[in-house]
Amino acid sequence: MKKIKICGIRREEDISFVNRENVDYAGFVFADSKRQVTVRRAEQLRSLLKESVLPVGVFVNEPAENIISLVKGGVISVIQLHGDETEEMIQNLKEKVSVPVVKAVRVQNENQIKNADKLACDYLLLDAYRKNVYGGTGSPFSWDMIPNGLEHPYFLAGGLSPDNINMALSVNCYGYDISGGVETDGVKDPEKIKKIVMAVRNSNNQKTAIKEQWQSENENQKQHLGTIVTREK
Asked: How confident is the model at residue 129 (pLDDT cuts 50, 70, 90)?
């Protein structure tokens, strides 16, 4: 079942939107950004978040000790590294805390993704590239650059919105990361969040129904073959 992450949460209203739609992840941006939140603000918002919605901390070249402090303080349950963090940094974090680490890739070519797939992180996040901009570009990248057979499950990011989510459903990703695409005039829009959630969940339900139908037909075929074998005996 594909997951949904709404990033750039910074208001109480945003929390109510993601709680109501029961998304899988809510992202707090600690990096320099128009959606940046302070640690204190993140603590306040985290206290309002449903237990089923995992809080993600988004960082760009943040010192490891600051990230570890947020995890140990219960503010975040997932680490997202969106800068130039190294394999050494990832391993250091994983030695100090037992939470998933997501490494963002600002995609320029297929080999770049393949190299990132060798990292010790738990997930990748594939985002659009813009020089000197660490995420939040609002633009998609060419999904044809995503190689088949990646070892890491990955989030698809970069300009996703209700207008293109149906096309994105064809991508074999772990989940979708959406921020600006569910905003109107710079703030989270509950109707846009709802449209994203409905599209992804409907797709998940269709795939489940197809799988169940296949399993049922396969079982019926086995039973039918068993009956034939019994008669022949």
From this structure: confident
